[in-house]
Amino acid sequence: MSDLDELRKQALADAAIDTLAVRAGQARSAEGEHSEALYLTSSYVFDSAEQAAARFGGDEPGNVYSRYTNPTVRTLEERIAAMEGTESAVATASGMAAILSTCVALLKSGDHIVCSRSVFGTTTVLFTKYLARFGVTTTFVDPVDFVAWEQAFTADTRLVFVETPSNPLCDVVDLQRLADLTHKHNALFVVDNCFCTPALQLPVKFGADLIVHSATKYIDGQGRCLGGLVAGPKHLVDEVLGFIRSAGPTMSAFNAWVFLKGLETLRLRMDAHSASAQALAEWLNDHPQVEKVYYAGLPDHPGHELAARQQRGFGGVLSFCVKGGREQAWQVINKTRIMSLTANLGDAKTTIVHPATTTHGRLSDEQKMASGISENLIRVAVGLEDVADLKADLARGLTAIA
Ligand SMILES: *Cc1c(COP(=O)(O)O)cnc(C)c1O
């Protein structure tokens, strides 16, 4: 790193998150490029056999092979660590690769996970079907029930995993309280911060040990690339990095470059997603064909005050129950013309989905009932279109079921 790069890095040490999102982690090459350089190379050349030996032996820092390090990926890792307020971060091929790598690197056979019941569906599959095969067991609990959290710990509990706000009902989990409980039991507290991103929530401020991300969602923000991140203290991230280097779920340099561009506008987008979701939630709340709206930005949501303290904004995802059942919910979805019928979220394009028959379709009827995934529930991940057009898009179906 040049002296000027070092001075630039020092100037960012106390910078605000908006500045970090645009600037952190960039080290310009000799070409003086303004935008971050995209290093599409699988390997790196050495000046001499002596240097090659030193690099391979770890006696000299520097690039060897892009499964280990890549300058574009490194820029993204440093930028996310700066934004989340952690010492270090490592990028992965997808959000699931981030969760898998965290678990494999830090757990062993016989260890126990306590996990929120309201986490991404594939996370549940990973824990129950695959980690279980290797002797790691998981207990799932209602994320707002602290008696249940407390009772779920065993002598073998090593890791607590949570998402807040939850998908799709926007349950808000008290991160500080759960961090304290987790640390009392000498376990690691892992927060999937995909829904808020560091623009709206900084879990380390409330005691999280590790933050995992699906960069696929809001960090990209325009639905192009798959990626994941793990952020935390260096000694833990290094363990995860060690697994990634050996197992190979590395982030591609091209995807890292796309995510760097995404981060530059993250705050602006998260504020816009939040403002539009709030407006849509309020409009739905007053609609005669809507039974209930789930959005933490509404004052009567049980998590409203906690979210207002813990988050900088309420986020872009909301759910609502229409009057009726599956038929009416499907009618509202089928009459949209602007929103995309897809399970993805975190995109400039608004998406709409029927959780009971898609994202949560694998759950048994009892599990759906316990999780509040009813047949008349619809989830909307609000994008960046004009809100008046989104209201009109939903009004078509809501009028039809009246
Ligand atoms: C999408 C998602 C994941 C998985 O991320 P991929 O990039 O699809 O592997 C994990 N957690 C949450 C909350 C998600 O929404």
Automatic annotation (TrEMBL):
This protein's record includes keyword Zinc: no
Enzyme class: transferase
Keywords tagged on the record: Amino-acid biosynthesis, Lyase, Methionine biosynthesis, Pyridoxal phosphate, Transferase
UniProt superkingdom: Bacteria
Swiss-Prot/TrEMBL cofactor(s): pyridoxal 5'-phosphate
Reaction(s) the record says it catalyses: O-succinyl-L-homoserine + hydrogen sulfide = L-homocysteine + succinate
Modified residues (N6-(pyridoxal phosphate)lysine): 217
Pathway: Amino-acid biosynthesis; L-methionine biosynthesis via de novo pathway; L-homocysteine from O-succinyl-L-homoserine: step 1/1
GO molecular function: lyase activity
EC number in record: 2.5.1.-
Keyword Disulfide bond listed: no
NCBIfam families the UniProt entry points to: O_suc_HS_sulf, PRK08133.1
Family (UniProt): Belongs to the trans-sulfuration enzymes family. MetZ subfamily.
Task of the protein: Catalyzes the formation of L-homocysteine from O-succinyl-L-homoserine (OSHS) and hydrogen sulfide.
Assembly mode: Homotetramer.
Entry protein name: O-succinylhomoserine sulfhydrylase
GN (gene name): metZ
